[in-house]
Each structure stands twice: as structure tokens, then as C-alpha cells.
Amino acid sequence: MTAQFDRYREAAKRRIAAQQAFLAVTKTYREDIQRDGRKITIDLLEGFFDETYGKSDRVKAEAQRAKELIEDFHKAAEDITQSVAMMVLELQTALSTLPTKALAPFFEEMGKPLAPKGNTPLDVARAGMENLSDAGQKLLDGGHQAAIEAHGLELRAEETLYQATILLELRKKHLSEFRQENLSVTLDDLKQRATKEGKDAVAEGLRKELAEILAEVVALTVEEVAQIKRAHKLGRLFQRLMGKKQVNRQRNDTDQLMDLVGLLEKENALLGKLDAVFKETAEAMKQVLESA
Can you tell me the distance from the alpha carbon of 81 to that of 278, in angstroms, rounded to the nearest whole number? Predict the structure, then answer.
């Protein structure tokens, strides 16, 4: 039984490490959302695409659908966090009461009245030893089975925590790529594009235009830079600099929006499955108390 408890303790250590990694990723994910603001993504979907491609029914419908999926994702993330907390609480409760549950059969056997076969002191002692032996065996069997079940639960918890961590890492990556492709416009980008496009007299015109754009960019306040207004203003300034080339990209923003919607749908489905696994794990931990 000692070996089984050792395996259980090792699994518990791995589960705790996985839990800490999951919580760390959750924290950084929320910081990303708070830093960029959920409003950036939603305003981008509702406003930026409309400015670029007009307020078509297709864009409006996809933007609304993406907005709802984003809200659903945040709710699912909260549900998973609560499920993880419940799972850990149930595990702690199981661990704290496991020794008592495992020892219960032993004390029950010890409390039974002796039924000696004879009247001699030797018969009385023999019956007492038999009761003690039975109680000890039940203690070993119960503790061993409880350790096996707890070990299995720890392995399940570790696996689901790692799945949740990987999913959130992918979610952060998708959001980062989406922001970079649609929101990130830096002064270096403007300079590089102006230099690349600028030749001879055209270059001089681009430099003047760039100077005007940079002046307007510098005038933006810190708050404006942190909000969606930055993406809108820089997007319009960008169009002045690039002309029709931005509109003629092979992959337009509407297609990117539909890709984002598809990713959100897949991630929400995975989150739902993970949440169900967490709840099943928490329920199984309750059963440990009953079976130990």
C-alpha cells in the first residue's frame, strides 16, 4: 500500500504543478483582455470592417455572431475556473477525511463484543486477535483502494488541467495574431511602407504625407492609443498613405473575420467539453469519500 500512496503523492504533485500552470495562463489571458480591452475586439468587428467595406448585411451578421461567441467564450472560461476551484476543493476535502474513513472499519471491528469459543482466557484472547486481524486487513484494503481511486482522480485532473492550459495558450495566440494583423499599426510600419513606395518625386510627396500623418499620430492621447479609436484613426490615416492598395489585398478583413468566428466556435466547443470533464472529476472526488 505504501507504493500505491507514493504513486498517488507523485500524481498529486504533478496535478498541483498543472493547476498552477493553468492559473498562470488564465491570469495572463485575462491581463491580455484587460490591456487590449474586450471593447477593442467588439468595436473592431462592429466599426472597422464597416468603415473599410461598408455596412453590408454579411459583415454586420458575422460581426454580431463573433461578438456573441466572444461573450460565450468568456463565460465558458469563468465556468471552467469555477469548476477547477470546485475540483480542488473536493480533492482537499477527500484528502482531509480519507484517514478517518479508512480507519473507520478498524475501529468498528475493535468495538464488536468478543464471542469466545470457550470459557478459558486463551479462547477470549484468540477471538480478540481474530477481530483485530480482520480489522487490520480491512484497514489495509480500504486504504489501498482509496489510494488507487485518489491516484486515478489526480491523473484525470492533471490531464484536464493541461488540456485547459493548452487551449488558453492557443486562444492567446489567436488573439495576438488577430490583433497584429488588424490592429497593430506602428510608426515603423508607416516609415517602411513610405520608403518602399517612395521613388523620386513620389517619394517626396509620400514624405510630406507621412509627416502630416506622424504629426496627427503624436497628437493622440495615451487613452486614445489604448482604445479602439487608435485603430480607427490610424486605419484612416493608413488608407490616405496607401490608397487603393489596402483595399486590394488578396485576403480581405471580412474573410479574416469569418476565420476568427470559426476559431471561436471550435474553442467554445472544446471549453464545453473540458468543463464537463472538470464537473465529472469533482463528482468522482465526492465518491471517494463514500467508497474509502
Answer: 10
